[in-house]
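Residues determine shape. Next comes a sample protein:
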Amino acid sequence: MLTLTEIEALARRAHEGQTDKAGRPYAEHLHAVADGVATRGGTDEQIAAAWLHDAMEDEALSEEWLTTAALTDATKAMIRALTKQKGEDPGAYAHRILATPGARLIKEADLAHNANPARLAVLDEPTRTRLTRKYATMRALLGLA
């Protein structure tokens, strides 16, 4: 099995050169989500999935890679659950997350970082408003306060 250190390095390489909506290196987001999961008492499997939660959605890693990766089945299941499909209804996405043990905690940490007022403040008003609504909707669908 890959160690958390190896998974972090892999995630950083996979997202190398990518930036978030504010122009920051994407690895900062991955680090914040992994830290958020750890702070919330997440397991090593959840922390591993947090590092890789956007890798397939962003096409940084493939399903073929995930199938053969030296990760636990639980970690793979969480990564798959957190991979939003193009055009997928938010309700269906939330349902899959809720149906996958451990995935909700990762999405909670992801939403917390995405909705951080300091991160949102650097975006233009229409984008900030759209994302604030999107994140609030997902929090509600997941039953997060």
About this structure: The longest helix spans residues 125-141. The radius of gyration is 14 Å. The chain has nine helices and no strands. The mean pLDDT is 97.
